[in-house]
Amino acid sequence: MNGIDPTNVQVLAAVLFALGVAVVLTRRNVFLLLMGVELMLNAVNLSFVGFSRELSGNESLWGQMTPLFIIAIAAAEACVGLAMVICIVRGRDTLDSDAFADMKE
C-alpha cells in the first residue's frame, strides 16, 4: 500500500467504529445519535478500501466502489432521518431520545 501499513488502516477503522458505538450508546441527543451512525458507516468504508488495496492492489476497484454506494445510501438515510427528527422535535420540543421512546402508532 505504498508506505501505509494495512494494519494501521484497520486499527484506525476500528477506533472510528468504537467511537461511533460509544456515541450511540452514551448520548441522548438525536442528532448526535445520527452522527454516531454516520461515523460507524465511514469506518466500514475505510475498512473496505483498506482491504481492497491490500488484497487486490490497484487492479480491482470493487472494494473501492462499494464505499460509493454506502455513502449514497448513508446520505439518503441521513436525509430521511433528519426529516423525521425535525417533524418529531416540532411536536415534542425536545431532542432527548428518551422522549421518543413512548411514541404510539
Task: State the order of secondary-structure elements, H for helix, E for strand.
Answer: HHH
**Fraction in beta strands:** under 5%
- CATH architecture term: Orthogonal Bundle
Residue stretches low in confidence (pLDDT < 50, at least 5 long) are none
Question: Main β-sheet: number of strands, strand sense, barrel status?
Answer: none
Q: Helical amount among residues, as a percent range? A: over 70%
The class by helix and strand makeup works out as mainly alpha
Tell me how many strands there are: 0
End-to-end gap: 52 Å
Domain count: 1
Categorize the overall geometry. Answer: elongated
- Count of helices? 3
Radius of gyration: 17 Å
CATH fold descriptor = Helix Hairpins
Overall average residue pLDDT:
83
> What CATH first level would be assigned?
Mainly Alpha
Question: How would the blueprint of this fold be written?
Answer:
Elements (H helix, E strand, L loop, with lengths): L5 H21 L3 H27 L5 H31 L13
Structure, described:
This protein is mainly alpha-helical and 105 residues long. The chain has one domain (6-100): Helix Hairpins, CATH 1.10.287. The protein is 75% helix and 0% strand. It contains three helices and no strands. It has helices spanning 6-26, 30-56, 62-92. 7% of the residues are buried. The model has no long low-confidence stretch (mean pLDDT 83).
